[in-house]
Amino acid sequence: NPILLEARDLTRSFSVSQGLFKGKRKLHAVNGVSLAIAKGEVLGIVGESGCGKSTLARMLLGLLPPSSGEIALAGENVGKLGRLGMAKRVQPVFQDPYSSLNPRRTIASIVALPLAVQGIGTAKERRERAIAILDKVGLPRRFADRYPRELSGGQRQRVAIARALILNPEMVVCDEPTSALDVSVQSQILNLLNDLRSELGLTYVFISHNLVVVEHIATRVAVMYLGRVVELADTATLFKAPRHPYTKALLASVLTPEPGKGIPETGLGLAFPDPLNPPPGCPFHPRCPAKMPQCATVTPKLRADTAGLVACHLYDEPASTAA
Ligand code: SF4
Ligand code: MG
């Protein structure tokens, strides 16, 4: 399939205040990420909180300009398309259906708002279109004049999905769209997203810290750590034969949740490092069970081979012996 969205060497840093008298530090939230997303695919992006996946999502949506690098949608620069131009083509679904819906608007007017912002149709036409799209996400007409507080979490997320689809976008960027929901509701929302994708020919970027959820919906998965992509492969390959030690740790943690303690995000012994003070060399080395001497000083490059992409010295090409 043709490439729909391409990100080249994306970087985003923020100035972060260290507190009184300590000045500011640069936080490299996203650090040199390149991605090519094909039309019709679901690219899963996984990693712990703080790995930069939400910052990446906001850049892919055109809501946050990159510090450096480029994003192109079907060959057009996302910055040049502008907010209104991007909104017609790429839409978000965010995690929290409680805070993302205006409590003072009815469901129909929330869903119709993107049409109004674009100046499309009359108020009556917009309302009819909102009701039609609400029906598509499983909310019958009687929901149109209700308020968000009258809906369950799953119903609210359906409203957010309807709002994302009303402009007929090509792509939807979902950032933890099911993380605030009960497990049973999560799978309903995932199934709905899957059905809508095939029915409408959509492309998704699907961001989550939850590998089980990503395995269910993604066709390829990128694993992020401290602002970088450290592994990228087809979903089946990644889950069957993970290569990066961080991916392996993430998968192991899914298999051994600790009851009563909540589910640890990774099960890794050491806490996530301070993103303001990332380790030198391989950013994962302080937590890596497979680290080697060079890992503390040399940052591994993301390398492509037949199984996908991986950034780890374990997969470096053997040093060529001069002929
Ligand atoms: Fe572990 Fe070294 Fe690979 Fe980093 S480069 S993941 S420290 S083995
Ligand atoms: Mg996030």
Describe this structure in words.
- With 323 residues, the chain is of the alpha/beta class.
- It folds into 2 domains: 3-89 and 169-315, Rossmann fold; 96-168, no CATH class.
- Helix content is 31%, strand content 24%.
- The chain has helices at residues 53-60, 78-87, 107-118, 123-136, 153-165, 183-200, 211-217, 235-240, 245-255; strands spanning 3-17, 24-38, 42-46, 68-73, 76-77, 90-93, 171-175, 203-208, 220-225, 228-234, 303-305, 308-310.
- The strands form 2 sheets. Strands 6-7-8-3-9-10-12-11 form an 8-stranded mixed beta sheet, with helices on both faces. Strands 2-1-4-5 form a 4-stranded antiparallel beta sheet.
- A hairpin with a 2-residue loop joins strand 4 (68-73) and strand 5.
- Helix 5 (153-165) runs parallel beside helix 6.
- The model is unreliable at 257-266 (pLDDT under 50).
- The structure holds iron/sulfur cluster (SF4) and magnesium ion (MG).
Describe this protein with a few key phrases.
binds magnesium ion; binds iron/sulfur cluster; globular; 31% helix; four-stranded antiparallel beta sheet; eight-stranded mixed beta sheet; Rossmann fold; alpha/beta; 2 domains; 323 residues
Helix/strand layout:
Layout: E1 3-17, E2 24-38, E3 42-46, H1 53-60, E4 68-73, E5 76-77, H2 78-87, E6 90-93, H3 107-118, H4 123-136, H5 153-165, E7 171-175, H6 183-200, E8 203-208, H7 211-217, E9 220-225, E10 228-234, H8 235-240, H9 245-255, E11 303-305, E12 308-310
Parallel strand pairs: 3-8, 3-9, 6-7, 7-8
Antiparallel strand pairs: 1-2, 1-4, 4-5, 9-10, 10-12, 11-12
Helix pairs in contact: 3-4, 3-5, 4-5, 5-6
Organism: Bosea rubneri
Family: Belongs to the ABC transporter superfamily.
Keywords: ATP-binding, Nucleotide-binding, Transport
